[in-house]
Amino acid sequence: MNLRGRNKVSAEFSMSSMTDIVFLLLVFFLLTSPAITPDALDLLLPKAKGKSTHQQNASVSITKEGAFYVNKERTTKNALASALNKVFADEADPTLILRAEQGVPIEQAVFVMDLANQKGYRVVLAVKPN
Questions:
Q1: What is the pTM of this model?
Q2: Are 81 and 53 in contact (CB under 8 A)?
Q3: Which of 22, 32, 67, 109 is 20 to 30 A distant from 10 in Cα terms?
Q4: 68 part of a folded domain
Q5: What is the pLDDT of residues 17-33, one digit of tens each?
Q6: Range of the domain at 53
Q7: Residue 60: how many CB atoms within 10 A of its CB?
């Protein structure tokens, strides 16, 4: 009498589930990687050695054309002080990231640094690492 079952267990390993997991991880990292970049404009920053470890509260960006931005919102040079006051209203130790594009006149950057010095903000100059 033959009592063997008709269901045989296969000893092969199916890679289809592994490829599905890898594909889902790839899609996840591709979708979340833009969220990791800082909230800033795309500027060509000057190159320098060093690295900053300060926590960013706000950023001021200056373009070649002389346009001022506070956290991606365009503002005029005269309204820059009031825009920074709004951003730093509840901050105990405010830190300002100054992002001046290559070719910006030094007077523009000094204006922002002087304004931050008057208000007591800590200023960090953003550069492109070598």
A1: 0.58
A2: no
A3: 22
A4: yes
A5: 888 999 999 999 888 77
A6: 47-129
A7: 26
